[in-house]
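Treating backbone geometry as a discrete language has practical consequences that deserve illustration. The amino acid sequence and the backbone structure tokens for this protein are reproduced below.
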Amino acid sequence: MTAQDISYWWGRAKEASLQVNWLPTVILAQWQLETGHFQSFNFINNNNIAGQTWQSYMPLSMKGTPRPSAEGGFYIRYDDPVIGYVDFIQKNGRYANVKIFETEQGQINEIAARGWAADTEYAEKLMNRLLSNRLQGFILEEDDEMLKEEVEVLKGQIQTLLNTADAHIEKINTLEKQNNMPVPDWAKDAVEAAVRCNLIDTPDGRSHDFYSLLTVFHRKGLI
């Protein structure tokens, strides 16, 4: 499935969320898990997400493909899979409390606890699917806002570090200049005297303090 396909179903999950009051991230993850990423035989042929069974009182136009022989009956065929999914949730009172939970984990645990699937690891698989989707950017809007705020904070911290680094670099450059400077005019006599008495070999490229010390020695008559 392409990213474009997932984006389409993400939009449809938001539509369903408005009708059943489940979090869209939970809905998208469940759709992917139930339909094998929208590739299952039942989904492709019947637009059936929740596996509902056709009943004799229903129109023949809604009679889908046969269910597994061990189960008997036929799947319901929907014109729109979202309609069938929403209808299933709204007509099953055992899932009424799912919307009460405000967190993704809370809703997932309630869905599993109410027997949506026989798989004892259903909640874990659903949460893993949700977390994988989150890495692709399919997150709740409030989480998205929090993420944007965190990014802005990080940008500020990075800028502060860059400013601090620039200040340190400036100090280092200043120190390098101070410790690798040509002979200043006020120290030339002292430097020449130091060279004559073989006290130094190379007059240039010394520090300010070095030239000051030679000047003191020269004034004291030591060189």
